[in-house]
Amino acid sequence: MAKDMTLLWGSGSPPCWRVMIALEEKNLQGYNQKLLSFEKKEHKSAEVMDMNPRGQLPSFKHKDYVVNESYGACMYLESQFKSQGNKLIPDCPAEQAMMYQRMFEGLTFNQKMADVIYYTWKVPEGERHDSAVTRNKEALTAEVKLWEGYLKKASGSFLAGKTFSLADVVVYPSIAYLYRFGLCEERYPKLAAYYNSLKKRPSIKTSWPPTWLESQGQDLLKDICFTPDIFHSTTMAKDMTLMWGSGSPPCWRIMIALEEKNLQGYNQKLLDFYKGEHKSAEVMAMNPRGQLPAFKHKDLVLNESLAACFYLESQFKSQGNKLIPDCPAEQAMMYQRMFEGLTFAQKMGDVIYYTYKVPEGERHDSAVKRNREALAAEIKLWEGYLEKASFLAGKTFSLADVVVYPSIAYLFHFQLCEERYPKLAAYYNSLKKRPSIKTSWPPTWLETHGPEMLHDI
């Protein structure tokens, strides 16, 4: 089966490594693969661009199905080869909820790590500030502390319980990256024990980055140490609680998914970002980062919006609308578009929230211009994706639409020109009438339009 698979990858890249671990776990050896050099810019070659128009690795293909997003590829492989190799999604609802939660928290973890390790690579010299370096390191320290705590309280040796799961597949490469760049094992003993025990697992040992066998990484993270303790507290929709903020795409995703699965009547509370209500003790008890959404089903907490959406579809498969297509081609496309949606949302956030996220003394017109150019290129990609499709993954509404639609709606709320992007506008306007979206439309958006921040994109 693996002979009809192709993987273009780079050594040491966590996204590439995730896919390789998943392939090993599913006994899918013998696939076509090509190791490329980031230093030589081989990831920008025509060969890669044909599969991945962003010029990024991994570039993964099964038959004619392209799934370049590493999370998407891992979930696709588990879905298509369920009965082969090791089972990577537990049946137990508690472990499955934990798996999805840790998986998507892993994206936050990876981003905070990259903000430290790649600061000088990502930020032009004239825009760098010591204050930003300090802030990034403090954020990573708090994040590492969270994961140390997760493993201290874990009911098993793995991130989601007693068995190795997709959570371990996608997060382990990031944890290994920490130690590659000098994180102190003595300061984080649970994290170190997890890292060292899984080094021996065949799927990880076999796919270990070859460049890491030849040289040590830098000591960039040796001074990442403990911060003060962060505050923790320990069928059907009546068992569910959602704390949310109006206009937040992550909150809106969960609300759309709940509507699609006919899970109305859940306990909900609308909070005000401007009043700082997302930092209240009530939220922090469910989400120690003080972010919305904060979502709970029975005793299972899933604050990561994609995790909650996957969990709801998995636990309520036979209820409401089916959100994961059976067709392999559509399923592959669904996973690809879902996780591309995170890149899309990030680039949009870099424009809309620049003055909110970046202290005044660190702002630069050059960064504003660069962010806007990156968003314009990203929007153009999505306009092309919708050239021949009514939905993001084919002929039916899927989790890809649940996850990405709120970001597309956000573009138009901030006055993106509909005439300039007719396919994106048609998609936006047609889905406005869908009951799950109409019912959950952000109440603050009914009162006012956003500022004209994107009208000239």
Q: How many extended strands?
A: 8
Residue share in helix: 40-55%
Number of helices: 20
Major sheet attributes: 4 strands, mixed
Low-pLDDT stretches: 226-235
Q: Taking strands numbered 1, 2, ... along the chain, how are they ordered across the largest sheet?
A: 2-1-3-4
Instruction: State the order of secondary-structure elements, H for helix, E for strand.
Output: EHEHEEHHHHHHHHEHEHEEHHHHHHHH
Question: From the helix content, strand content and strand pairing, which structural class follows?
Answer: alpha/beta
Q: Radius of gyration in whole Å, from Cα?
A: 21 Å
Mean pLDDT: 92
Question: What is the CATH top level name of the largest domain?
Answer: Mainly Alpha
CATH fold descriptor of the largest domain? Glutathione S-transferase Yfyf (Class Pi), Chain A, domain 2
Instruction: Just name the CATH architecture of the largest domain.
Output: Up-down Bundle
Report the β-strand fraction as a percent range: 5-15%
Net shape:
globular
Counted up, domains total 4
Head-to-tail CA distance between termini: 44 Å
